[in-house]
Every structure is written in C-alpha cells, then in structure tokens.
Amino acid sequence: MASAPDPHTGKCTAAAGLTVFAAVMMLIAGFLNLFRGIMAVLHNAVYLKTPDYAFKFSLGGWGWIHLFLGIAAIMIGVGLFRVSLWARILGVAVAAMLLLANFLSIPYYPLWSIVLMALCILVIWGLCTVRHEDG
Known about the structure:
Elements: H1 7-41, H2 59-80, H3 85-104, H4 110-128
Helix pairs in contact: 1-2, 1-3, 1-4, 2-3, 3-4
C-alpha cells in the first residue's frame, strides 16, 4: 500500500530547489561580471564610448567594480549551495549591487548589462521567495 506524500517534504524540496536555482544564477552572474571586469580593465574595444554620461568613470574603474562584485558573487554563489541564511542575505545584497552596477553601466555595454540585470532579478526572486521556516 502506497503512503500519502508528505506536503512538508515538498515544501523543503521546493525551498532547496529555489536556493539551488539562485545559487546557479548567482554563479553565472558572478562569472559574467568577472569576465566583464577583466575586459574593461584590459580596455577591450567592445565597450561603447559615452562622453556625456552622468555616471562617468574610466573604463578601468567600471572594470574594477565589476571584477570585485563578480568575485563576491562567485563566493556567495558557492555558499548558497549550503542553504545557509547568511549566504541568502548576502546573496540578495550582492545581487542588488550587481543590479545597480549593471544598470549604471548600460551605456557602456547595453545588451550584456540588460541580460545581467535579468539574472540578478532572478537571483533576488529565488532567494526572497524561500521563507525562513522552509529552508
């Protein structure tokens, strides 16, 4: 005779699944920002010239910002696989900073910025929909 499925087990599985999804998306966003930072620090020619942009930094300055945020995102993405509360909180914070950095650098590399903004929104969604008692 088959036993009835436990609804609580389904909640834990869904919570763990969303956290793993957010971890994978955080790792992808982290690596993409890391590569973007390296390209900017090396002054790659793929970036657009924006002479009258209000948030103008040097290309190297934007590169270092994306490089450091990418490294932080990779480290937190690895920590998210342990489904810990501190990693979820830091994950939301770093994803929000990545979202802001990519928004501010849209004029330099528009398509890449918009794709990374979408990934950051997915990370924030995945980490915020898991309730504390579910994880």
